Amino acid sequence: MHNPELGGRSIHFKSLLSSPKDGLKSLSAKCCNLKSKVLISEVKRLSLSRHKVDEKSHMHTMPQDPRNMDNLLLRRSPRFVLATPNDDSKKSSRNFDRSIVNGRQSRSPGKLASVPIGDNVEVKDVSSGKSKKEPFKNFMPSLVNSDTRGLDESYLKQSPAEYAVPIKPEHDGFCCAPTTLIETASEQTLSEAEFSASLTIKSNNQKATFFVGDAIPEDEAKRRWQWRYDMKSQTLKSGKKSLESDDEDEIITNVKCHYKQAEIRGCIFEIGDCAYIRGDGGKKHVGRILEFFRTTDEEDYLRVQWFYRAEDTVIQNQSSFHDKKRLFYSAVENDNPVDCIVSKVNVARLNPKVGVKSTYLQSDFYYDMEYSVEYSTFRTLISDGSAKGNDSPSCNSLNGSASTDIGTTLENMLRSGTQKAELTLLDLYSGCGGMSTGLHLGARLSCTDLVTRWALDCDESACESFKLNHPETHIRNEGAAEFLKLLKEWEKLCKKFAVNSVDGMHGLRENNCRVTRCHGSPADVADTPKDEYEVSSLVNICYGDPNEIGKPGLHFKVHWKGYSSKQDTWEPIEGLRNCGEAMQNFVRNGFKSKILPLPGDADVICGGPPCQGISGYNRFRNVEAPLDDARNRQIVVFMDIVQFLKPKFVLMENVTDILRLDNASLARYALSRLVHMRYQARLGTMAAGCYGLPQFRLRVFLWGAHPREKLPQFPLPTHDVIVRYWPPPQFERNLVAFDEDHTADLEKAAVLGDAISDLPDVPSLETREEMPYKNLPETDFQKYIRSTKYDMTGSPSDDCRRMKSLLYDHRPLPISGVNYLRICQIPKRKGANFRDLPGVIVGADNAVRRDETKEHLLPSGEPLVPDYLFTFVQGKSKRPFARLWWDETVPTVLTFPHYRTQAALHPEQDRVLTIRECARLQGFPDYYRFGGTVKERYRQIGNAVPIPVARALGYALGVAYHKFSGDEPNMILPRRFSTSTYLELTKSLDPPVDHKALQH
Asked: Where does this protein reside within or beyond the cell (predicted)?
């Protein structure tokens, strides 16, 4: 489709269906119109299908090599990332780099880092002492994901979607298994001319021959590469060519025979060897040889499985601190002329270890993770070595779009008697607790008790709200940078006072602890002489400048003997040197009660580091270098805390602008930090409306997982949704949605009436903090949102069934005076706004102007329509003083009801939406209360992660922790997940569980 906003370019989307277990599904091509830099003006319905961006608009993707089907188009992906910081959406990512050697084109990866032509080496396994001389037994599992044409439907039905490729046992010395490599042989570095001369083709009629020895017997070759010979047969039947000149990802099907070895410039290469493959401009790319074969045209080819360097992945220019020897395994393969081989390299497989730098001095490269462009996934390699099958390309689920249907996972866990595991959670930048609350509710549904033990936020009112709903949590009102410094000091104190030693008290006892206060007397009485006071106990700890005297450092809150707790003061640690016993008591008690996490204590860290410097609502943001803005540095601090505490799982949330500005440098940095720490990672964008809320609200979520854990999946939508805007086109693959044309049983999109129609009428100046409901719930959403905490969690500690059911925080921002009179004049109908006021004329260009023929004034003498409305957005906006309507949604719940510039008025009442109504749009249960002023409560709700989104992610987290999840990037939630409480879901299963065993 033509899009005039993109300079006449067409942006195409192609979709990939989930691959069933019994075969590849056909693929269809569709075109959609994407506005990449502005919000879509018209509201569209999205059936939760994920549109795959075409190479011409998708800038940063890696090689894919899937087979193509007759007259149907696979979703194509450029084989390798164009890792240039100057890429823009007008560049074609289908511009694959080719290396032309004497007229032959290399299908090597795209623009990669230049590596000196390497050494000829031999791979040896020290456990057996065998050199790699038996190349034909086993191969790495791989994914074929590129376009090929010429397969008809009959082939699709008989072609399995997954080809299991056996991995050679470790004692066979296969180069992908953990190995120790011998010293490299003599260097053989060639110039461009020498390399070209060494591969000169003898004549136009005489092909260059590279293979050594006899061809592999045909029956063995067909057994090992049956998929290729099947494709050959289908190609012959269809009469299509094996390789089209305009499609360099085409799989070559006119195979004649296979060989075991090839000789390039006097060096013997075998199947399974790793090598430099020459690319465009002399670039050397690293790949593993999977096949040697000759075509019926007497041309020699090899099949290569590629490795990525860090800069070739989504990380791109945020890879500078990564080890240059580190590679990432990929399931991407393609066919290339044999003469593209440069030299052997040795590549070792290592097991990733968090906090341990991987170095392999005897190898040219090493790899410890797998990378896929799907959801920008970095994952620990599967190393069971149990796969069976032919030497065929595998449709590895990591690269595919298949999803795990675990709708019965909860039932399976309950029926199998799975005991609830307890995980501890640290909520950074917690706000009022939306993310951690949702994660807790979702994890409960997957037999996991996710306990929010610590929370942190610099907003005092948000901390008040958090404490109001989670009294058991250690909530700290301070900045994350100071919190990290405190954690490091706390670790030192725990070591110093030997918290695990029974003899730690020796030599620290004193009769009393008297110190000189630095900041006046405990009572702050001016005439009290500066003297020594006796410390009764230490009651708190912080790092910073609590006395605001410009001297940050470690401070303890001191309770003074003979004084009340109101007179406690913060004292620097330097003034408490002679209070060893009091300090040790505090540290030991704090260690036992875990007032602060030590490394390994927090199983999960979640948070949404604020990035006001990149928000779309910030007109003064640093677009070119966002990390230079101090307001964006919290992503760095977040990752520093992860690095220090080393949790099992990480979940970071942020606005989609981190994918838009400065070539997504902030998102790439976050991914890079996790991967550099050897954490698995996966990035997705999720719309709140897809999980049953009447707002769109697209946000970015980044999973991280310790290499020993399963990387959590992204939960697929449960609801249809009304689309308000699109994610950046280069991250279209990261949109969490069903593949296009996938048949999904989705619930209808939630609208405003579904959420708030049951709430009682209140005036604009309502001040009551609580009130009765008056009306019964009218929708499933309302019934669910009114549930008690016990219904939501099923935890006996949350049994509040005897509490009186009251409605909290149902009060709006008070509006009085002239603006209230203006609101009262807005008609109570759909689409009404300030344009419906008398005295406003709408021109042919959709701009408004004042009717000068008649003056419309308020009783105060002020104009009914203020002047600023005629200039706001050149007078073309319909949002000021606009009413929402029952069958509509909101784009995003904001931090303040800006009724003068946004649609924020209640459909039928002369006021803005109340605090509770906004909370419902964010999915907060009605039992959840908020503290602070009215404005502060609006801000807390607008900044929160929607509860249903976090709940779905919490469910996925629990499933991954129990290792019930699959290897696909997505999972399917249980039916009616979004509107069913814990008790409803568990009762509906009625599993025959041994309850005594569960209690035990």
From this structure: Nucleus
Cα–Cα dist 748/772, whole Å: 30
The DSSP result for 737-757, as a single string, is: SEETT----PBPPP-HHHHHT
Are residue 394 and residue 414 in the same domain, yes or no?
no
For residues 969 and 939, membership in a common domain is answered with no
- 732 near 58, Cβ under 8 Å? yes
Environment class of residue 549 by beta-carbon count within 10 Å: exposed (0-12), middle (13-18) or buried (19+)?
exposed
Instruction: Provide the pLDDT confidence category of residue 238 given band limits of 50, 70 and 90.
Output: low
Q: Is the pLDDT of residue 224 over 50?
A: yes
The DSSP element (H or E) to which 698 belongs, if any, is: strand 698-705
Please list the alpha-helical segments (H only) found in 922-989.
Answer: 934-943, 947-961, 982-989
Closest listed residue to residue 392, CA positions, set 110, 15, 18, 24: 24
Q: Is 64 helix (H, G, I), strand (E, B) or coil?
A: coil
User: Quick one: which of 650, 649, 669 has its CA closest to 658?
Assistant: 669
Averaged pLDDT, 247-275: 89
- For the chain, give the mean pLDDT: 77
In a domain, 745, yes or no: no
pLDDT at 273 over 70: yes
Q: CA-CA distance, 603 to 648, in Å (whole number)?
A: 5
Which residue in 893, 943, 889 sits closest to 719, CA to CA? 889
Q: Give me the domain span that covers residue 509.
A: 499-593
Q: Determine which helix (DSSP H) or strand (DSSP E) holds 130, and give its type and residue range.
A: strand 130-131
**Predicted local confidence at residue 498, as pLDDT:** 76
Residues 137 and 253 in one domain: yes
CA distance 514 to 576: 9
Range of weakest confidence among 192-206, 329-343, 892-906: 192-206
Which residues lie below 8 Å from residue 236, measured CB to CB, with a gap of 6+?
Answer: none
Burial of 552 (0-12, 13-18, 19+ CB in 10 A): middle
**pLDDT at residue 536 in the model:** 94
913, 888 Cβ separation under 8 angstroms? no
208 and 308 co-located in one domain: yes
Q: What is the pLDDT of residues 568-619, one digit of tens each?
A: 999 999 999 889 999 999 999 999 999 999 999 999 999 999 977 766 555 5
How many domains is the chain partitioned into structurally? Answer: 4
pTM score, whole prediction: 0.79
> At which of 540, 572, 593 does a domain end?
593
Q: Which two tokens stand for residue 348?
A: 């070792």
Whether residues 281 and 384 share a domain: the answer is yes
Task: Supply 578's token pair.
Answer: 């002679």
**pLDDT value for 362:** 82
Give the E-state strand segments of 394-445 in sequence order. 403-405, 421-428
611 is catalytic: yes
Residue 291 has pLDDT above 90, yes or no: yes
- The answer as to whether 36 is a domain residue is no
**Cα separation, 772 vs 776, whole angstroms:** 11
Residue 997 placed within a domain: no
Same domain membership, residue 901 and residue 804:
yes
The per-residue b/e assignment along 491-529, b for 16 or more CB within 10 angstroms, e otherwise, is eebbeebebeeeeeeeeeeeeebebebeeebbeeeeeee
Q: What are the pLDDT digits (tens) for 618-674?
A: 555 666 666 677 778 999 999 999 999 999 999 999 999 999 888 999 999 999 999
| Cα-Cα end-to-end distance for the chain | 62
- The continuous run of DSSP H or E covering 538 comes out as strand 532-544
Give me the catalytic one of 32, 395, 463, 611: 611
- What's the distance, CA 33 to chain centroid? 25
More confident residue, 72 or 425: 425
Q: For residues 240 and 286, state if they share a domain.
A: yes
Whole-number Å distance between alpha carbons of 62 and 225: 25
Tokens found for residue 577: 């040197």
Give the per-residue pLDDT at 612.
72
